[in-house]
Amino acid sequence: MKLKFLGHSAWLIEGSKKVVIDPFITGNPQAKVKAEDLYDVDYIVVTHGHGDHLGDTYDIARHSGATVVANYEISLYLSSKGIQNVHSMHIGGKYVFPDGVGFKLTPALHGSAIIDGKDVIYGGNPAGVVVFMDDKAIYHAGDTGLTLDMKLLADELIDVALLPIGGNYTMDVKDAAKAASFVKPKLAIPMHYKTFPVIDANPEEFVKEAKRLGINALVVAPGEYVEL
Ligand code: NI
Ligand code: MN
User: Which CATH number goes with the domain that contains 106?
Assistant: First the structure.
């Protein structure tokens, strides 16, 4: 399985199926791919309604026919825009598709408003997600502050945890390293930093702090991948 960092919080998981999480590509200064490079994905996961996560979901869903996995409110919004293949879930819920790919939405402390022109649309509760595929479990925290609830994720036997470290809107380096120590993944990888000046953070500091807490961590640059 390949876990490819598309920049910001966008990740492509390539295993027996292709899953893209938070595909913010257009307008993402870190993106090394184009939205059309993702027209062959099987699933799109949207953790919350903010533009830097909802991103190119509409475009990719329309061209790929991929199943969009999101909370009920975002699913409703996408359905109202003509995206039919949506699978709505909510926090704490897990669902395994017939092809064996599973998703579980996890709590996130954040917002989820969808901005549509001049309208601010309620996007439900923000989430993180655990993706289960090919006997691996990948945790993508979405945007969130540090929570004690993350300790419960240790029971999911997470292989890789993708954690926001940029601060201001989410955990900073120190909190993210603490989150890693709660989740106890085999590998922690930082995301959601440097895209905008306000979330400037040093990913190597995260790696150092995570290792100090006994968690293996690695920086993956935008456009690069790790093999599991
Ligand atoms: Ni956000
Ligand atoms: Mn964000």
Answer: 3.60.15.10
